[in-house]
Design goal:
- The protein is of the alpha/beta class and 310 residues long.
- The protein has 2 domains: 31-157, Nitrogenase molybdenum iron protein domain (Rossmann fold, 3-Layer(aba) Sandwich); 178-309, Nitrogenase molybdenum iron protein domain (Rossmann fold, 3-Layer(aba) Sandwich), CATH 3.40.50.1980.
- It has 13 helices and 14 strands.
- The strands form 3 sheets. Strands 8, 9, 10, 11, 12, 13 and 14 form a 7-stranded mixed sheet that branches. A 5-stranded parallel sheet has the order 5-4-3-6-7, with helices on both faces. A two-stranded antiparallel ribbon has the order 1-2.
- A hairpin with a 2-residue loop joins β8 (183-190) and β9.
- α6 packs parallel to α13.
- The protein starts with a helix and ends with a helix.
Length: 310
């Protein structure tokens, strides 16, 4: 009788363990999420995932999700492990390799804004989630993407504490920035061309979430461009920013290293309070330009802004 009860207990325990395992791959009910390109419903937790961007890859890395295909070009140092041959190359940040993706037989593709023009082609291969952040809504959209993917992968026990942690850090930085009353100018150089980005740009979180005030020139006008407002070093000198953030696009896309430091070493920049008070900050180009919306990237951004406030 004892052995029979023991055997029944073993079977019950095994069955419970099997159910837990099954629950990790099959939802109790289909999961539906809304994203920038519409709505998607998945019946099962995806197992074969292709990731076409570094921000979403940064998040999946923190969730412990192993993709089958990734973009291997321009990976930041903290995602270099995805160069390993066990991860199939799925194209570049701008051009997916459709044949390679098709051959991987994904049950989910995670795309980012740079491949939005070919979204329909990707969605014809497999359900495709668009990881997208609207200008002016960095933290709001980032949180929603994290929660959506946490729901898809049954990992919101990881994403919610991450959001709470970063919420607290953002609030701390915002309070420090407001107290400082500092005006910041955010500039991206592409070779010798300069562009500024204000409160409603792709770098809006410097002003909205992180709490600095936008610095603008009074006597020189910027010219609207495709990527930011085109400016000159005379514009920077006229704006007299308390903080000057510089993003070196050439470094971000692997064309040069350190050119921005040389370019910004001139009398016009030296005339600003930012330079005089050692608040000329060369921000992490990979985090701000390539992986914005990722967990590690957001932490790096906070560190960059903190440099100006400490």
């Amino acid at each position: 009788m004892f052995r029979k009860n023991k055997f029944k207990a073993f079977i019950a325990a095994w069955s419970f363990a099997w159910l837990l395992t099954a629950a990790s791959t099959v939802f109790a009910a289909p999961v539906t999420v809304k994203h920038h390109m519409g709505e998607m419903t998945l019946a099962e937790t995806p197992k074969r995932v292709v990731v076409l961007g570094h921000a979403s890859l940064d998040l999946l890395d923190k969730l412990g999700i192993e993709p089958v295909g990734v973009v291997k070009t321009l990976l930041p140092d903290y995602l270099k492990k995805y160069q390993d041959e066990k991860y199939q190359a799925a194209g570049s940040n701008l051009e997916p390799d459709f044949e390679a993706i098709y051959m991987l037989k994904p049950d989910l593709i995670i795309a980012e804004s740079r491949v939005m023009p070919v979204y329909d082609k990707l969605a014809a291969i497999a359900p495709t989630y668009m990881f997208y952040i609207e200008n002016g809504q960095y933290w709001q959209d980032t949180q929603q993407n994290w929660l959506n993917l946490g729901k898809i992968f049954n990992k919101n026990e990881v994403t919610k504490p991450l959001i709470a942690e970063l919420d607290k850090q953002i609030a701390t930085v915002h309070a420090k920035a407001e107290k400082s009353g500092q005006f910041a100018l955010t500039v991206m150089n592409n070779g010798s061309n300069l562009a500024s980005f204000g409160a409603d740009s792709r770098f809006s979180h410097i002003y909205h979430e992180f709490g600095l005030k936008p610095s603008v020139a009074r006597n020189i006008k910027a010219k609207a461009g495709k990527h930011g407002n085109l400016i000159s070093f005379e514009y920077i000198a006229d704006a007299q920013p308390d903080v000057l953030f510089v993003l070196d696009r050439e470094q971000a896309i692997g064309r040069s290293t350190g050119r921005a430091q040389t370019l910004f070493s001139n009398p016009l920049v030296a005339s600003t309070p930012a330079f005089k008070n050692k608040r000329l900050i060369f921000i992490n180009s990979a985090a701000w330009y390539l992986t914005a919306g990722g967990v590690t990237a957001t932490r790096i951004m906070l560190d960059d802004v903190n440099q100006a406030l400490n």
